[in-house]
TrEMBL record:
Family: Belongs to the azoreductase type 2 family.
Pfam family, one: FMN_red
Name of this protein: Chromate reductase
NADPH-dependent FMN reductase-like domain sequence ranges: 4-146
GO molecular function, one term: oxidoreductase activity
Membrane-traversing stretches: none
GO cellular component, one term: cytosol
SUPFAM superfamilies per the UniProt record, alphabetical: Flavoproteins
Species this protein is from: Paenibacillus catalpae
């Protein structure tokens, strides 16, 4: 059965490097369906707004996560941490506490940066948040993409570095397999 994978990019920038990675993933692992899940329209998290299905943008966001078999989060690193827009999105996806769409949802985390450390700190923070949401984060594997500016083509908006493409392909293939394993954890 074909897996449905949601792609959440933690950057709002039009020429986001992580957006380019998200645009590349479907051509690397074709035995899945992909949906970009937008976070730009989400209001800042406010418990006063979080009743029923929440605001319209939140309702659409949660529905997109719910219909996905798994989620790949693509995070930049801002000031040695998770971008505020991504943390905000994860906060919306973590409520209501007992029925949140991230509970037992398989998740993978990828990050790209022009720097040399490859979003290590941002990914640690995202993983910490996902642990609190009871998500099933792909274990034992990390996908840090450093010096991304030299590995993409700005015009095609795609990852062009062959070595990085191979690593990313293996990572996403492992994630697709992880979805099946995580499903067994729910049985």
């Amino acid at each position: 059965m074909t897996k449905k994978i949601g792609l959440i990019v933690g950057s709002l920038r039009e020429l986001s490097y992580n957006g380019m990675i998200a645009d590349t993933i479907p051509e690397l692992v074709e035995n899945a369906e992909y949906e970009h899940i937008a976070i730009a329209e989400l209001p800042l998290y406010n418990a006063d707004l979080d009743h029923g299905d929440g605001p319209d943008a939140v309702k659409l966001f949660r529905e997109a996560i719910r219909r996905s078999d798994g989620i790949i989060i693509l995070t930049p690193e801002y000031n040695s941490g998770t971008p505020g827009v991504l943390k905000n999105a994860l906060d919306w996806a973590s409520t209501p506490t007992k029925t949140a769409v991230l509970i037992k949802k398989p998740v993978a985390v990828v990050g790209a940066t022009p720097g040399v450390k490859g979003t290590i700190l941002s990914q640690q923070q995202v993983r910490q948040t996902l642990e609190a949401t009871q998500s099933y984060v792909l274990p034992h594997q990390k996908m840090y993409i450093s010096e991304i500016i030299h590995k993409v083509d700005q015009e095609s908006r795609k990852l062009t570095d062959e070595t990085t493409r191979k690593y990313l392909q293996r990572y996403v293939q492992s994630f697709v397999q992880w979805i099946d394993q995580a499903d067994r954890l729910n049985s």
